[in-house]
């Protein structure tokens, strides 16, 4: 992949861009194998890869510059800004939206936030695209509600220009820190969820719910989890850290008792909407802390599926899973280092199968799916 921003030295986010892609995959696979070297693995599967460019469905753009000439991209540590509208990781459909948004910022008088001076209102633009229908979700991250009336007044013209903007909201983030979003979300359109579909499974993305940024590879990750779980012929499973329910909804069949747990109420609302669309009856999604739920629950499912944040599931949940003793644990991880630490704590389980999924080409990051079987 050629990137003019990388060649110019203005953006080095893709640290591995100069490595041939087969070498990138080989180094990631070697890293994963070294992390699990002390644990016998019954089956290593080949890494799964997707496109090397234009694969992202999401852009998180820092807004800088002036209201007349805004820049959308990132800030370096020295405060200098880089416009990333031409980043080759974004699909071609993003470019006209970025151009229209720059004009809109000026027209609506949304002054970009100046970090050094702690002045201005518009901090970020967050754009997400559905690969199933081309619809988009746009979020304006504002320092306060001071410009909200101006934003609302100017929106109809933007919506006329960009009818693909199905979901629009304003997020209020008043803190002067590198935190992308605040707790308060103000809907600006009647529709509040963007519809996506992976493997004929409807999924919904709300403004404050997490969703994978590489839909092509994520779709294959969910399909792989589905195939592995269905081969086990289980009737009950927990989906902990479930997000919008992608894993559990793929793995569940009409007779499966599925319990999905996620701390984000927005994500749980999405998961419930998907379950209703699919007509699944034996499904219970709850907005709770996954570790607290698991350690307080008396019932033991046949399989526990975990998809934790980068910190992993942690010592307490590992110890509880050892005591609870489900027959299988399916571990999906975005940080193989913490996954390996957790697997070392799951002393009553062996590794049956491992597969790497390259969600993040040109970086050292990757996802991994691991099936653990109770000894």
From TrEMBL:
InterPro entries: 23SrRNA_MeTrfase_RlmC, MeTrfase_TrmA_AS, MeTrfase_TrmA_CS, SAM-dependent_MTases_sf, U5_MeTrfase_fam
Binding positions for S-adenosyl-L-methionine per the UniProt entry: 212, 241, 262, 307
Keyword Transferase: yes
Residues the record lists as binding [4Fe-4S] cluster: 3, 11, 14, 87
Coiled-coil ranges (or none): 141-168
Gene Ontology biological process terms in this record: rRNA base methylation
Tree of life domain: Bacteria
Gene Ontology MF terms in the entry: 4 iron, 4 sulfur cluster binding; iron ion binding; rRNA (uridine-C5-)-methyltransferase activity
Assigned keywords, A-Z: 4Fe-4S, Coiled coil, Iron, Iron-sulfur, Metal-binding, Methyltransferase, rRNA processing, S-adenosyl-L-methionine, Transferase
Catalytic activity: uridine(747) in 23S rRNA + S-adenosyl-L-methionine = 5-methyluridine(747) in 23S rRNA + S-adenosyl-L-homocysteine + H(+)
E.C. numbers: 2.1.1.189
CDD domains found in the cross-reference section: AdoMet_MTases (cd02440)
UniProt entry tagged with the keyword S-adenosyl-L-methionine: yes
Active site: 334
Pfam families assigned: tRNA_U5-meth_tr (PF05958)
Recorded family membership: Belongs to the class I-like SAM-binding methyltransferase superfamily. RNA M5U methyltransferase family. RlmC subfamily.
Name of the protein this chain belongs to: 23S rRNA (uracil(747)-C(5))-methyltransferase RlmC
Lineage, broadest ranks: Bacteria, Pseudomonadati, Pseudomonadota, Gammaproteobacteria, Enterobacterales
Gene name in the database record: rumB
């Amino acid at each position: 992949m050629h990137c003019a921003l990388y060649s110019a030295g203005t953006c080095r986010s893709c640290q591995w861009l100069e490595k041939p892609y087969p070498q990138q995959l080989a180094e990631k696979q070697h890293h994963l194998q070294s992390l699990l070297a002390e644990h016998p693995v019954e089956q290593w599967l080949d890494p799964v890869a997707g496109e090397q460019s234009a694969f992202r469905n999401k852009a998180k753009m820092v807004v800088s510059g002036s209201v007349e000439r805004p820049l959308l991209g990132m800030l370096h540590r020295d405060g200098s800004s880089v416009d990333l509208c031409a980043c080759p990781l974004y699909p071609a459909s993003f470019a006209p939206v970025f151009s229209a948004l720059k004009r809109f910022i000026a027209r609506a008088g949304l002054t970009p936030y100046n970090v050094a001076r702690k002045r201005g209102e518009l901090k970020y633009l967050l754009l997400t695209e559905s690969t199933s229908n081309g619809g988009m979700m746009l979020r304006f991250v504002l320092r306060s509600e001071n410009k909200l009336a101006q934003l609302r007044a100017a929106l109809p013209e933007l919506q006329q220009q960009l009818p693909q903007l199905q979901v629009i909201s304003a997020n209020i983030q008043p803190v002067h820190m590198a935190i992308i979003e605040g707790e308060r979300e103000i809907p600006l359109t009647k529709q509040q969820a963007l519809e996506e579909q992976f493997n004929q499974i409807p999924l919904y993305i709300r403004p404050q719910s997490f969703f994978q940024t590489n839909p092509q590879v994520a779709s294959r990750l969910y399909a792989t989890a589905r195939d592995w779980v269905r081969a086990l012929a289980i009737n009950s499973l927990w989906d902990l850290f479930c997000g919008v329910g992608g894993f559990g909804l793929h793995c569940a069949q009409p007779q499966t008792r599925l319990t999905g747990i996620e701390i984000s109420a927005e994500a749980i609302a999405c998961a419930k909407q998907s379950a209703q669309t699919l007509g699944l009856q034996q499904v219970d999604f709850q907005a709770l802390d996954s570790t607290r739920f698991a350690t307080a629950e008396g019932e033991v499912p046949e399989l526990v599926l975990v998809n934790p944040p980068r910190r992993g599931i942690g010592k307490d949940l590992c110890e509880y899973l050892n005591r609870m003793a489900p027959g299988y644990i399916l571990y999906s991880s975005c940080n193989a280092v913490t996954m390996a630490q957790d697997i070392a704590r799951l002393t009553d389980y062996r590794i049956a199968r491992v597969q790497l999924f390259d969600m993040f080409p040109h970086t050292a990051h990757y996802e991994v799916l691991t099936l653990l079987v109770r000894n």
